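LAB NOTEBOOK - FOLDING QUEUE
OPERATOR: T.R.
BATCH SIZE: 2
PURPOSE: Compare the predicted structure-token outputs for two unrelated chains run back to back under identical settings.
PRIORITY: normal
REVIEWER: second-year student, initials M.K.

ITEM 1
FIELD SEQUENCE / FIELD STRUCTURE:
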Amino acid sequence: MTASLLLYGSPLSPFQRKVEAVMALKGLAYDCEDVSVMDMPGWYTEISPLGRIPSLRDRSIAEEGPAGTITDSSAICGYLEKQQPEPAVYPADPFDHGRALWLEEYADTGLAMTGGLGLFRPIIFNLFQRKEPDLETARKTWNEKLPPLWDYLEAYLDGRAHFVGDSITIADIAVACQIAQTDMVAGIPDKSRWPALVAHYQAMKAHDCFQRNNEGCARIMAKIVPEKFDLSA
């Protein structure tokens, strides 16, 4: 049976991972259609003029063209929250709601730009293009640029299971999605230095809402990176 929600993108995208986790948490059925970020088709750039993935199509609104589509993971998650309010991933309390939005932005911008552009892409995109991975850039990112970002998150968690409140919010999902991105290539942060952050990530990765994306990524990465890279200094 065709689901009313169709997600365009790639399971390797941390932003698609975020949307998939929200849909799974809310029990929403969805289909996926792959879109190559290396060679984006014209029909997709009509939907996503900034050339970003993922985009969501609600087939109950329109089955083709830009109509019925939403681009940008945060916009999509906001739409899903309105469409299926329970379980909520955005806190009801105004201050907690703001904190969750901040941490989502911290992950989507700070972690994504640093870990994605500075580590994942220099390795994976190079391999896709049959080039040698840029391990020098990736190693500098792993050892110098990511640790201050992890320090902030470790302090923010302060030993708690969740970043905001007592249940999973968009903050937990967004942060875990970005750490998963670097984990696929280089592993997890040092547990002795960031114990709360690593425990949080491992719990999120094991949650049911991440399993479909985990499986899709594992199939792809097994062909590209059979063993993770050691980026220790």
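ITEM 2
FIELD SEQUENCE / FIELD STRUCTURE:
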Amino acid sequence: MHYQLLAYQLPAGPWIENSPTLWDAMRIFGPEVAAVNLQKALRLQAKLQSLGVQVQGIIDLETAKWLVAFKESPADAPEPDSRVPPEYRIEYHMHRLEQGNCGSAAIIARTKRKDLKDPFGALSFVRTWKDRIGETCRPALLNVGIGAISDIWNGYHSDDKGLLQEALEFGKEALRIEKNPYTYCALQSIYRALDQDEEADRCIQLAEARGKPCQQNRHGIRRIYDTGNQGGHSPDERDELPF
């Protein structure tokens, strides 16, 4: 004998008709929408579907409203918060970047690195955009590039020691524009990887002098001699910054 579920009832709640749209809404917003704001959730679910918005995981109703507003009028949508899926935050900031807001570049790269766990994507973005934005916004973007290279190197995702040199070049360019403590903090791990502890310590001191204590994780640093030092530095070869 087979049974078909036509409706169900939550404790002290109304009967709710079983339907594909209901389960679509619950998949997007979670099971609690059956008890609170069900009709609103169903309307938003239908709107998202009509706009071609694909959502992975569960979001809240306010995030859904933001997605609708952004898809309908990107220029008028407010800045998204961390609840918005990262791919749509990137899309929002790409729109702003293409409209001339250079500050969005670092946000995009940081979102790729931190939220999408994609340091290669972040680094590729930095390489593409670092010379296309104004100097005022460039240091923040370059700092993300240094961090992405740290992630790649220390995570053993590449043995290319040229990445460490590229990180130093990012740092030199950023410091030429602005002596920013975040740049010094980002560079200290690169110097540790290059087995240049004196330079790393100087970076930490300079960052602290500018009011930014650096988070240190020496145990998580992959030293260049751990890879056989092929193409690496001899003790007499030092990379100095324009301190």
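REVIEWER COMMENT (ITEM 2): The longest strand covers residues 7-9.
FOLLOW-UP: none requested
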